[in-house]
């Protein structure tokens, strides 16, 4: 099965703060979900377009920003490019373009490349062919602390592309689309925490104040489990039977929908 699923159209309306957003068609892999990194659509310093993705390292736990999967054909020639602005010696970036086979097993691409400190936008780029057996590709951006890390370090990324011919297979590689940007954001909503994420066997949820029902849906939007009569502020349950992939956990109170969180089942 796939490690995470390609999303065609998913609208997820969650209660974000300005420093706790994730760009559309990307997700975070953190040791401490919601605590290791903060992302922000920065319109003051884009490499091109309206926004760049500002990445703030909050803890030295090596979080990843990961693209949704995209379909690839083995043997196809591609060119991977990403722009970055790293003028902060406290942290560095590491860029990957990797793959999965039809069973969801990892197939590694070219060796990852590291950012270099500088006072302007720089790019990393390489050309290669899709490895034998690969059916999906994805991009990983690893943010980690350099020796001597003391507090928040900030870098930017923009305009990620995996070009096959004239087509960029990375959805929202320019970080122009962010949930909640351009619309009035809800206030006073509970901030449910789902961990670990990715999840293997057991899901833990905290900050469930006021939540009465939880619904889990697959990437197509089809509900696969409903938990009724939620009581208390915390909850844990098993998800061993779920196939590997991306899911959406929606929370409801007596008035209806409250929020939705992405979870990755491995």
Description:
It is a single chain. It contains no helices and 20 strands. It has 2 domains: about 25-170, Galactose-binding domain-like (Jelly Rolls); about 195-265, Immunoglobulin-like. It has about 270 residues and is mainly beta.
Low-confidence stretches: 1-19, 182-189
Distance between the termini: 10 Å
* Biggest sheet details: 7 strands, antiparallel
The structural class is: mainly beta
Structure summarized in a few sentences:
This protein is mainly β. It contains no helices and 20 strands. The chain has 2 domains: 26-168, Jelly Rolls (Sandwich); 193-265, Macroglobulin (MG2) domain (Immunoglobulin-like).
Strands, helices and their partners?
Layout lengths: L25 E4 L7 E6 L9 E6 L6 E4 L2 E2 L5 E9 L5 E10 L5 E2 L5 E2 L7 E8 L6 E10 L7 E12 L2 E2 L24 E3 L6 E5 L6 E6 L4 E5 L7 E4 L6 E9 L2 E10 L1
Antiparallel strand pairs: 1-4, 2-3, 3-12, 4-11, 5-11, 6-10, 6-12, 7-8, 7-9, 7-11, 12-13, 14-15, 15-18, 16-17, 16-19, 19-20
Keyword list:
disordered N terminus, 266 residues, Jelly Rolls, 2 domains, mainly beta
């Amino acid at each position: 099965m796939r490690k995470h699923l390609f999303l065609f159209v998913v609208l997820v309306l969650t209660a974000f703060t300005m420093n706790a957003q994730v760009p559309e068609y990307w997700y975070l892999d953190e040791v401490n979900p919601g605590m290791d990194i903060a992302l922000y659509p920065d319109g003051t310093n884009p490499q091109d377009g309206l926004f760049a993705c500002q990445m703030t390292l909050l803890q030295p736990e090596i979080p990843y920003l990961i693209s949704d999967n995209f379909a690839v054909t083995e043997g196809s020639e591609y060119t991977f490019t990403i722009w970055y602005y790293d003028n902060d010696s406290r942290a560095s970036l590491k860029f990957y373009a990797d793959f999965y086979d039809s069973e969801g097993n990892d197939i590694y691409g070219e060796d990852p490349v590291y950012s270099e400190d500088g006072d302007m936008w720089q790019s990393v780029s390489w050309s290669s062919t899709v490895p034998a057996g690969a059916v999906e590709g994805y991009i990983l951006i690893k943010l980690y602390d350099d020796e001597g890390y003391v507090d928040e370090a900030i870098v930017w990324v923009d305009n990620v592309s995996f070009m096959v011919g004239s087509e960029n297979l990375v959805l929202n590689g320019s970080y122009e689309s962010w949930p909640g940007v351009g619309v009035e954001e809800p206030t006073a909503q509970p901030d449910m925490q789902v961990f670990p994420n990715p999840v293997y066997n057991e899901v833990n949820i905290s900050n469930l104040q006021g939540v009465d029902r939880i619904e889990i849906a697959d990437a197509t939007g089809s509900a696969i489990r409903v938990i009724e009569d939620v009581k208390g502020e915390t909850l844990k349950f098993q998800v061993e039977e779920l196939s590997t992939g991306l899911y959406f956990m929606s929370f409801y109170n007596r008035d209806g929908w409250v929020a939705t969180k992405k979870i990755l089942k491995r």
